[in-house]
Every structure is written in C-alpha cells, then in structure tokens.
Design a protein that fits this description.
single chain, 295 residues, alpha/beta, 5-stranded mixed β-sheet
Length: 295
C-alpha cells in the first residue's frame, strides 16, 4: 500500500531540541537565527511542503501544535503508526517528545475517532520504538526493516512485528562514529525500489539486502555524504501519480543517475526545508505520518 492520505503537524515553537541532539548526529544548532526567525522559517517550510503535496493530489490533514514544550511535534511519524482500523502509539526516547501525542490527542480523536479503532498503547514502555523513524515498513510484503538503537529497542520491535503480522529484519548501522538514530535517515523503501546506505551497515547487511532483492526491489545505494544531505529520508506517496517526496537539499545532492533510476517509477517532489532539516535533524519523510486508518 502507498498512502494517499497523510497527517502533518504545524509547529508553534520549533527549535533545536537539546534532548534529542545527544544521539542525532544530523542536528546542527544554527545560533545565527533568533527563536522567532527559526519558527517563522520553519512555518514557511512546513506550509510549502503541505501545499506542494496537496497540489500533487495527496490528501493532507494538518494538526496544530501550541505552546513551547514540544519542539519536535513537526515530526509526527515517530509518535504513532497506522494500519487499517488500527493505531499503534509509540514509546518515545526523550521526555519532551513523550508529550506530543497526549497533547494533540483531542485533535487525533477528532480526525480518527479513536473509540472505533483497535489502539495498542505502548507509549508508557520504558524503552523506545519511535514509529516509522525507527522502522521502515514495506507494506507490500509485510516486512519491517529496523536499525537497532536507543530509539529502536529490539524486544519492542519484535512485539510490534508480531502484533501486526510483519517480518522483522533488524540490523545495525553507524555514521559519524555513532549508531544511526533512525532507520529512515539511511533507508527508503518504495513499491519498486529501495534507497539504502549499504556502506553504513555494520551488522545484518546480507540479510537485509537479500530480503530487498527477494521482494524484487531495485536497490539504489546511497553514500554517506548523500545521507548527510537527507537523501535517504524520503517517502513514496500516491497523489495524482506515484510521488517520491524529499527535500530540495536531498534532490540537489542525489547523484543524477540515481534520480534517473527513481524517475522510472515515481515523480520526485522536492521542497526546500533547510531550517527544519538542520535544527531538527530530520527532513521531508519525518514530517509526514501516513494515514492508513480507513484504507
């Protein structure tokens, strides 16, 4: 399944999140911008992405954050995962990220009507499993790829996969001399292809590549430099045609031959996200939560 409906969260006080920076090597604190400038630019980038997706035929539901205690609420895909008729609430790693779903729950209830869903609430678990940041799902073949880290606990991963009938393919990866904090920074799985930074995988590479090949994916390798520019942080969506959504930075740093390989299958939609990517350490894919509730 490719999502044609998504959820995004408009931020009210986006900023560099010091709580998450300890293990997110992709966050950079630009102190040249005032807090008001950061928020204004992030809001403009958010609106540009939501507008581009709507113009491309994707149904976008926008929730609105308020207050200053949830700087990463702009990345909702970490806090929940949807399936037809089902909702999984994720346990988060940092304290301020644990506040996000409860804070926005009335808006989610208005969107989903939680009373009619099968809800699995893991949000109070002591370990973390940060949604489709920690896990990259191949919904066509019921496979879950996951780079183990402080944000992706192996026991919780197996419980999640068992609950939703997914084959789990765990592995380990390192970049900048640290464990990769989220799988979706180094890996994108689409219907017909996968982007993957093979060179960063330290354990489980053979099994991972074998599963991708067995499902018929064209494997498009990414370099470490491309990962630094969020070339792996993409998402396939269905609008008027299949789309691969990424930041403008990712598009500009992705090798032309790789762009050509992607465009055999999908139109690439790219939008400038410099402030969100730099201060947040996540990019286009992280800003989008797929909505399969009524699929």
């Amino acid at each position: 399944m490719i999502a044609d409906k998504i959820i995004m969260v408009r931020p009210s006080a986006f900023r560099f999140n010091a709580e998450t920076a300890a293990d997110n090597a992709y966050q950079v604190n630009d102190r040249s911008l005032s807090p008001d400038e950061v928020q204004a630019r992030a809001a403009d980038e958010f609106s540009a992405l939501a507008g581009a997706l709507r113009a491309a035929g994707v149904k976008v539901d926008v929730l609105n954050d308020d207050g200053e205690d949830t700087p990463d609420s702009i990345f909702p895909n970490n806090t929940f995962v949807t399936f037809p008729g089902k909702l999984f609430l994720c346990p988060m790693y940092s304290d301020n990220r644990k506040k996000e779903f409860p804070k926005l729950r009335p808006q989610y209830d208005a969107l989903f009507d939680l009373s009619r869903l099968e809800v699995a609430d893991y949000s109070h678990e002591p370990a973390a499993l940060e949604g489709t940041g920690a896990m990259v799902l191949d919904r066509f073949h019921d496979i879950c790829y996951a780079a183990l880290s402080a944000r992706c606990d192996e026991d919780l991963l197996m419980r999640f996969c068992d609950a939703y009938g997914l084959e789990h393919v765990p592995f380990r990866a390192r970049h900048h001399d640290a464990a990769v904090y989220h799988t979706n920074v180094i890996m994108t799985v689409a219907e017909h292809f996968a982007l993957i930074a093979e060179e960063l995988i330290t354990e489980g590479k053979e099994d991972l590549l074998a599963r991708l090949k067995a499902t018929g994916k064209e494997i498009i390798p990414l370099s470490a430099d491309e990962v630094d520019h969020f070339c792996g942080n993409c998402l396939e969506l269905m609008g008027d045609a299949p789309l691969l959504v990424m930041s403008e930075e990712a598009y500009e740093h992705l090798a032309p031959e790789k762009i050509a390989r992607i465009e055999k299958y999908d139109r690439i939609l790219h939008v400038p996200l410099p402030v969100i990517s730099q201060l947040g350490g996540g990019s286009a894919r992280c800003m989008i939560a797929e909505n399969f509730i009524d699929a």
